[in-house]
Fold these 4 entries.
Entry 1:
Amino acid sequence: MRVKDETKQQALFEATVKVVNEIGFASSSVAKIAKEAGISPATIYIYHENKEDLLVSTYIEIKKGMGRALLQGFDTSMPIRDIFMMVWRNGFEHVSKHRADFHFTEQFANSPFIDLVDMEEVNKYFETIYQVIQRGIDEKIIKDVSFEILGVFMFYPMLILSNKRHCSGFALTDENIETAFNMAWDAIKL
Amino acid sequence: MRVKDETKQQALFEATVKVVNEIGFASSSVAKIAKEAGISPATIYIYHENKEDLLVSTYIEIKKGMGRALLQGFDTSMPIRDIFMMVWRNGFEHVSKHRADFHFTEQFANSPFIDLVDMEEVNKYFETIYQVIQRGIDEKIIKDVSFEILGVFMFYPMLILSNKRHCSGFALTDENIETAFNMAWDAIKL
Amino acid sequence: MRVKDETKQQALFEATVKVVNEIGFASSSVAKIAKEAGISPATIYIYHENKEDLLVSTYIEIKKGMGRALLQGFDTSMPIRDIFMMVWRNGFEHVSKHRADFHFTEQFANSPFIDLVDMEEVNKYFETIYQVIQRGIDEKIIKDVSFEILGVFMFYPMLILSNKRHCSGFALTDENIETAFNMAWDAIKL
Amino acid sequence: MRVKDETKQQALFEATVKVVNEIGFASSSVAKIAKEAGISPATIYIYHENKEDLLVSTYIEIKKGMGRALLQGFDTSMPIRDIFMMVWRNGFEHVSKHRADFHFTEQFANSPFIDLVDMEEVNKYFETIYQVIQRGIDEKIIKDVSFEILGVFMFYPMLILSNKRHCSGFALTDENIETAFNMAWDAIKL
DNA sequence: GATGAATGAGTGTTCATTCAT
DNA sequence: CATGAATGAACACTCATTCAT
């Protein structure tokens, strides 16, 4: 795998997301993705070892972007609740701007492909957030339960609410986002 | 004229779930499912119009079972919170007994296959629960927000917490289940 | 093969002709023919040993009808030319009334299926006509060339001219039929 | 990038003709044709969109060769009858050299596949001959009837007489060919 | 006599991947 | 670096036929 043309690599990621979103993993083929990206199927093998690698790389690329987006404007000195609200808003903003990407990750994370991902690598993009949660627990602001349970009420709701497939009726207005945040906060706050 | 073998149909559903869970939609083929079910690939087409129909039927079959399970022991006269707790417990119990089925639906619901399902048909299995929610809203016990938002905090958590992929560290103990219920209830109660 | 229901047998012949004409031998299947005939594929095997036998039987059935039709109103005492003209007219009349049947035989006779037919059996339906030809040769009215060559100019033209595929512009009017007859007669007469 | 192998394309045409002639459209499969051509079934799809396209292309290829062959030695200044005789002889010579090809076209032209052919494209290979016919009509040498009728007596006989299936007893000797020509000429001449 | 269930073998076509250019 | 040609293996699905009922 020799890397050269960065725009081609980018086009490949975008094509992968588009094709998989439109027809699912079951029907997605290297040929179709290549066609969408405007390159030859053979060229994909210059950028990626095989099909699996293409899919996994696409997933990690998107996750990296999400981790970065959530922490936009982050400031340790802010009150815990404000930090969460900011993260919450950042999350909705980022997702609404990258619906397709996020849609892809949902599909990916609920398939056996997820087993191929080195979760350590992904988690490090969210490290800072874990630290905030821990602080909240230590300061007795947040319930003292496992990160996983907290995530179920604080982070998954962002994904589900933003997912047209699951919540077709939830418009991403400031008001709706705040209402939902209050519910999430009620769930996790002590 | 031989008569249609009902056990074959059942074996087919189980094989579909098993194969899809193990290797995902991307690699699941009619031949593999048939082999797992111990029948000829051609026989599948006696029971189902095509592959799509097999997958969709499997999904609906599972959803039907879930809807039935959630309402086990249901009694209108119970207090709203108790009903939800019962549904919550029923949910975890059912899911823990049918992990594979439920795993399949997660994958299915996050793929384009879900678009092939007549949601009306699925929703009717959950009709009674919708009525309880409405009663809770009317009696000012539950927050007056859309069903979708409530579902995100009251029902999706069951799915995510039970999902080893997403919550490997969440053991389905009575204590954990109750802790999580309290968080869900905090989120939706007025 | 036990024969019972004559109308079913007839429906089967008609279905065979219809299906083969519409989609050709390449796509025709026992199942499609059975469906067209309104019976089960399995039932076909009560009336015919196998698919081949069904096709061949259909061909022979049609040929029998043609042989009979050509000789309608036949009378040995008529002048040779008049006999030919009568046969010619009978031919066009019969074909125009049984376009589909005739269409089927064209396709059949130009496929390897024809090799399965016992030509002796078919030829006997046309025996009388061969005798007339021989008389014409003996009486020095018709050119003394082989039956095959004479057939090419006297009988094949009926088939080709009646075939919409080959002669879309040839309307089966009395005038056209007579014009063509004169050409055929010019070809074979001494 | 490997370059398309023209001999492979040719082998494919020949294999198609051979297989279809031997077992008919009903039994001819892409796999059998590929095997006969010595290539992988998948390779066929590099040269042709699908099976249909392979068959149609083969037909057109053969027709093109025929059109060219008929006009060998063609000279406008020759008398009409001599031109026809030359075309007639060219036809028999070409057919006898390419029996298999011509056999294929007979089968093809009597099947629904013929409907897939752009007749305009085929007819242009015979354009010159149509002009000669028209000249013959204008000069009152040939009967003033439609091209189709003339073709039935002037061109179809070549095909039928050369067809072992229809005329097993017609040897392609110069004498036989001339005898038949005279009959054809008698049919169409004024 | 008639049929739907059942299937091994086959259908046309696409797959992920390699390779010569 | 990039590609179209090439393919063995697999794909979803249909085949002709048999068989229990």
Entry 2:
Amino acid sequence: MSKSATKVLQALERVGGFASAQELHLVLKRNQESIGLTTVYRTLQNLVNEKSVDILRKDDGEAIYRLCGDSHHHHLVCKNCGKTVEIEGGAIEKWAQKSGEENGFREIGHTAEIFGLCSEC
Amino acid sequence: MSKSATKVLQALERVGGFASAQELHLVLKRNQESIGLTTVYRTLQNLVNEKSVDILRKDDGEAIYRLCGDSHHHHLVCKNCGKTVEIEGGAIEKWAQKSGEENGFREIGHTAEIFGLCSEC
DNA sequence: ATGGAAATGACAATCATTTCCATTCTTGGT
DNA sequence: ACCAAGAATGGAAATGATTGTCATTTCCAT
């Protein structure tokens, strides 16, 4: 499980944020790395189990992954043109952590996204 | 779109919590209601759009739905058993509004969800 | 070198969700 | 009541992500 894991982790570093299994597979292919899609899925699953990688789901249900410890940020997206701004979410982190703890939850994570119309739209 | 909507809403009331489209379809079939799976999906989409129904995702990516009160709130969901707690999000509302405005956005909305492991899991 | 366990990858299978399209209801105007 | 236009419906096929299968390859300790 070692060679593939290395490749997948490198791909995750290269993209620098969230990426789906399919995207990672493409990235690896583009970089002349020979690796099967099946192996990408299996490797990601292993990495998630050993907590080296976070998994979450897009609205359409597709799974996206990122390295644990990556700096965590959120997105501000224009509903009309798709323009995206990265936002630091200090307030949200605290809110999520606190709300979770108050209800007896552990290993608390969260997703959040802001949308609206940007100045040009 | 009205007859189907009624049936789907009744099914949602009957199950009393979260249910997937497929489960709702089964429930309706068991109760002699004639309705197609396609229509269940379409109707759920409509109900989600008009904010009568909440949608979220299980760990495996399957969509689950439930009736939603009209007050704006967020969810704290157990990754393992699906237990859900409704959370008031005062901090988040302000954060979203502020972040959007600082970047020149208008008509600002947001999504947010907290997940973790509940006390029994 | 060798045997066995773990890893790999091409391909097929699965499963929720969507798309297509033909058929059936509604509805407004006459 | 009648009829055409459009909306709603549902079954079948398509889609797309993910998982299972299984033959082959790589690793590693002996």
Entry 3:
Amino acid sequence: MSTATRTRWADHALATLQAAGYRRGGARTVVVEALARHDCAVTALDLDDELRRRKAGVGRASIYRALEQLEQLGLLRRIEVARGVAGYERIEPDGEHHHHAICRDCGRMIPFEDASLERAIDRVSGRMSFDAAEHEVTIRGRCERCAA
Amino acid sequence: MSTATRTRWADHALATLQAAGYRRGGARTVVVEALARHDCAVTALDLDDELRRRKAGVGRASIYRALEQLEQLGLLRRIEVARGVAGYERIEPDGEHHHHAICRDCGRMIPFEDASLERAIDRVSGRMSFDAAEHEVTIRGRCERCAA
DNA sequence: ATGACTGCAAAGCCTTTGCACGCAA
DNA sequence: TTGCGTGCAAAGGCTTTGCAGTCAT
């Protein structure tokens, strides 16, 4: 994941927000920039900790609000990273994305991608009377470390 | 999904619980029998409503405790059916299972299954240094009704 | 008799909402 | 100036836990 890709997403996100009629507020922009620095799912509380450490002066509520708006606009994908905890990941304009294997013992997330898996999902989606916008695949089990 | 399949799961579940050292308590058995009647994901609160209507005399806490024990024993698969809401589905001993398309407008769940998708997931799992036990695929978008 | 099991109520935890103030447009 | 955007604190909603009584073994 290159720096250019991250910047591209941030620019794309800010432009989309503006086009949707959102004002260029301070908190939301800070959240977008923070998301641009992560390549795998982050939770709202992760961002809250991070921004607090950076003394960004962004309230927790604003983080949740920004995440929801970004998700609605198709800029973020929301996945469950732990029981009742949501994680958010950038949706790249070019469609590039990965899925996750999550360790049920330590919670570690291992990202993976596979073209034939994507093709299989596309084929299934195409056969259904359903307007598919996103999809997610989660493999659960034990990671290398915990299985030992 | 045949009645035989449901009964088979219930028997298998009760036997597994007993083998794991659990006592044949009343509440847990009622939860197992309730789960046997559902072919797609049900939430803890759904079960609570259902059992209350049937005057089963099972407390909400016992439902949550039973669901967690059954999940730990590999008898149930836990999936997220709405923001922060968990749904549970039987894991059939023969491995038969389906996945879900979930409408982001009305929340409807449309089950689907696809052999080539399963093969693709198995191939990916096999290549990873990860002890894969379960997997889930979720397609999100708009259902036929809401897309219109 | 012993310790698991259960129901009730209270507590937890992530997330959302109400409200008054501040700031973009 | 208008009303969207924000931070803080309080409220919500699902889930988990503490506890004392009950029941399986």
Entry 4:
Amino acid sequence: MTSVPPTTPVQRVAAACRLMHEAQGPLPVNTLIAATGCSSRQLQRDFADVLDTTPRTYGRSVRTTLARHRLAGATRVTDAIYDAGYGSVRAFYEEAAQRLGMSPRDYANGAPHHVLLWSITDTDIGTVMAVAAPQGLCSTGIGEPAELMERVKREFPAAILLRDDGAMTDVMSALVHLAAGRSAPDLPLHVQGTAFQARVWSALKEIPEGDTRTYAEVAQSINAPSSARAVANACGANPTAIVVPCHRVVRTDGSLGGYYWGIEIKRDLLQREATP
DNA sequence: ACTGTCTGTGCTT
DNA sequence: AAGCACAGACAGT
């Protein structure tokens, strides 16, 4: 699961970034080098080469980005500030306030690309690729490896994509189980969507394996009974196929409806789930 | 070519 | 004022 000390610059940077995402903010360089197995000077150079920034700047960006997201949904601004890891409201305003409303140039300097890990594996329903941030799974896809790779590059154009089969062993084995129509432990997700999409996707996770719902039923279950069409669109926009089981939603007349990755795969998945 | 040590400078707290 | 991050210079492999 946890890999040996990273040896390439990109791997070292990825390891350090992951630590700071877990810590939700900047960490002392001396803490970071424990995980990277190199000197502080080398880590500084790696960050400069790979991300065109510094460890500290990256960590601050993690914290301010978190603050930005929390502020969006917070009832009390001060709660959001403390949740985001600032020691005081004053510290927040001094460090982050300008950054939250920063110029495009500052944003480019202070918000480096994300490092995303990916892996790919064969399953019963075809080749499956998965992309993960430290917070959780971002994207899954089914199909030809080359096409999947292209798709991911388009989906995350600013990301540094790093293949790491070792770090994703658990995720990939869960996907293999799911693709076989069997159950798997819940995977942490890190997906972005509108509020409506989020409601649909979380409703989909409630559909038991081997079962199906109609688009209209899902619409009712989220208190939007007239939104069956919008539900179908949200299913089509599901970034984490198989994990969020959009394949379990069918039309009221019993036909399968659509599936982003191909109707054959949807049929295949449902058959495997129906016959355990 | 890549990496670590030493070091001066300048931020941050 | 103290501590730390940063990056240049240099040397070892």
